[in-house]
Structure formats: C-alpha cells, structure tokens
Specification:
The protein is of the alpha/beta class. The protein has 14 helices and 15 strands. It has a 7-stranded parallel sheet. Strands 12-11-10-13-14-15 form a 6-stranded parallel sheet, with helices on both faces. Strand 10 (about 205-210), helix 8 (about 220-230) and strand 11 (about 235-240) form a beta-alpha-beta unit. Helix 8 (about 220-230) crosses helix 12. It is globular, with a radius of gyration of 21 Å.
C-alpha cells in the first residue's frame, strides 16, 4: 500500500540549504512505497519529478506572506488527507516538523548579543517576530505533532530549553551529503583553474566561505578577522546577499583589496571548495549548515562557531576549530593556525572521515524508519 507523504516548504529555491534537503529527500525516497507531494508557495527547482501543490494567496509584507501561506496549507491538508505531513515551516497541524531553520527564539537570543537595547526592543515589538514565536510555540504544543526532526544536537537542546518538548518526540537526523558528488579529489581538477581565473596565487592560503544571509553568517566578523591575519591569507566569499555590494565596499575600506573575492550566488560550489585550503563559517546561529558538510566531504578542515550545529562534527586540532562567532581575535588565531604550511593538508583525511557516515542513503533510511514508526 502506498503512503501519501506531504512535504511543506514555502519557497523552494535550489540555492537554499533547506531546499537542497527537500530535493535530496525526494530523490532518496523516490523508489520507496511513498507518494510524495511538495506543498509550496513558489517552485524554483526546475523539473517537477513529483506532485506539486502551489499555495499562492495574495498578501502584503512578510507577516501576511507567512500567515496566508499557513492558512492555505491547512486548507490543502484538510482536503487531501495525507497519511503523513512533514513541514519545514512553523505550521500547526503537521505530523512531523523538520527544524531545518532551527529555533526562532534561539536565533533572536543570539542576535541580541550584538544589538543595542533599542534594536532589541524593536525585535520584541516586531509583528513578524511576535507571529513567528507564537506559531513556533503553538506548533510545538500541538498534540498532533508526533515527531520533530532535529538536524543537530544543538537544535534538540534549544527545543528542550525553550519549549520543553518530550524527548521521545525529538529525533536527531543529520542532513545527508552526496559523498560521490563532494570529494577531495575535486581539487585535482579545479584548484588551479579557479585560482587562475580569480587572480589568486597558487601558493597562498585560501579560505572559502559558502552561504547566503551574510549578516547572520558573520561575514563582517570574518572580514575584520582577515585584516589581522597574515597578509598572504586570501578569502573566497561564495553566496548571494541583497547587500553584497555593501560587504564588498566594507572589504575595500578595510584595505583587503584583492585578498577577498565575492563570487555571488552559484549553482555549484564544488570548484570553489576545490580551490580552497580550508573552510570558515563564523555564523551567529546555524542549525547545521550543509556548506560545512560539503566542505568536510571535500577534505577541507573547517572553522565554525559554537552556535553552529556542525561544530558537533569538528574536533579541534584534528579536522578544524570551533570558536565564538563574535570573538574576532580567536577567529583570526584559528585562521592563522590553519594557514601555517602543511597544517590544513594534514587535516584533510580527518575532515573527510567526519562525514563518511552521513551519506544520502543513511539519511533516507533514518527517515524511513521514523515514518514507519509513526504510521
């Protein structure tokens, strides 16, 4: 008998980490006894291999967007009567919630660390933040919620701390990584051509940052740390941001010149991982980060923050380092450590081993086991 599974994601964009998880899940479960339907506001994922239901109600502003989408989804669920509903959005009435975006209350807590009292007050009074927190609270309290997929221990601990969800509902399932698509030998093909195209000398230490949403992911702190690092250390910033030009201007004001290259959004980050010696992500809050998994799979030692779920995969001095996102001196020190001759290359095998048990097949089996337990 075929099980009808609905996956809910408001905006499906092939560049986003959560969206790549949806795509990976759809592909991994394609041959199983599951009928998959994606419920979304906007599909940007190319060819549709599965049923797609678009919920596109009229709205004004992001509060109206989220509220109207949630109402539309609930109408679809009442009509379709799926066997299982897995939501990637904070919507009451789902069977499974995948906390891919983490805990909003935890993000606001971390965000407040570098905000003045007036901005913090604005966040508390913001209609959108108030709605999101209320939706999060109501969803976790809803008795229809059977399970929460926590993509890291960090997320599970935050859910416990803020919402006291019973442990039996919390399941840690890391994102799956395609280990045949991301692998260390990519450097043999791409390292020299990418560096040559971007004007980066072959022999300089090169760090790569991959991600969108530069404010949350710490690009300002990263640029400041780079000013204190050795003059031969270079940085690739791969990803899109609506204020990208502002960050490029900041790099220029800091005197970083050609030491920083902003690529903008890319469909395939593999050549940039391959060109680099190490990966860095000083994010203020990151539930896991597919980019860290991809970098480790490519054999890059990683510097991540204490509030990044992927820190659970990093052993300091073995396959990277962990430091506070706002500690500029510590970030600079760790970059200096990895920039020393031979250090990053010695960590490459350990970086790869850290994710070898996180393949797509392993993730899909864990998901299937969870679905079976709930049906």
């Amino acid at each position: 008998m075929t099980t009808r599974l609905a996956l809910i994601r408001q905006r499906y964009n092939p560049f986003g980490g959560a969206e790549r998880f949806v795509a990976t899940t759809l592909e991994a479960l394609d041959q199983r006894d599951l009928s998959l339907t994606l419920i979304t506001r906007q599909w940007l994922g190319g060819e549709r291999k599965h049923d797609v239901i678009e919920c596109r109600p009229a709205h004004i502003g992001r509060l109206g967007r989220d509220r109207s989408f949630a109402r539309c989804v609930r109408l679809v669920l009442d009509r379709e009567k799926f066997d299982l509903v897995q939501s990637h959005e904070r919507i009451v009435g789902c069977d499974i919630f995948r906390a891919g975006d983490g805990v909003h209350a935890a993000w606001l807590e971390q965000r407040s660390r570098c905000q003045n009292w007036l901005t913090r007050m604005g966040n508390r009074l913001s209609p959108w933040h108030r709605y999101t927190l209320a939706a999060e609270r109501a969803m976790f309290a809803d008795p229809r919620l059977k399970a929460v997929i926590c993509i890291s221990e960090l997320v599970r601990n935050d859910i416990r701390r803020f919402y006291d969800v019973p442990d039996e509902k919390l399941h840690v399932i890391y994102n799956g990584i395609d280990l045949d698509y991301f692998f260390p030998e990519l450097a043999l093909e791409h390292r020299v051509p990418i560096r040559l195209r971007l004007g980066i000398p072959e022999d300089v230490p090169l760090f790569v940052f991959v991600g969108s949403g530069f404010e949350r992911k710490g690009v300002c702190c990263l640029l400041e740390a780079l000013t204190k690092a050795a003059k031969d250390v270079h940085l690739l910033v791969v990803g899109s941001d609506k204020h990208l030009n502002r960050y490029a201007a900041l790099a220029a004001r800091l005197g970083l010149g050609k030491r920083v290259v902003f690529t903008g959004g890319v469909k395939d980050a593999r050549p940039y991982y391959a060109a680099a010696d190490a990966f860095v992500l000083p994010t203020r809050y990151e539930p896991l980060s597919n980019a860290v998994l991809e970098a480790l799979a490519c054999g890059l030692p990683a510097i991540v923050s204490t509030q990044c779920g992927a820190a659970e995969l990093v052993t300091p001095g073995v396959n990277g380092y962990v430091c506070d996102a706002l500690d500029i001196d510590a970030l600079c020190a760790r970059m200096t450590d990895l920039a020393r001759p031979g250090v990053a290359s010695r960590m490459r095998p350990s970086a790869r081993r850290a994710v070898e048990n996180l393949g797509v097949a392993a993730m899909s089996e864990r998901l299937l086991a969870l679905y079976r337990s709930l049906l």
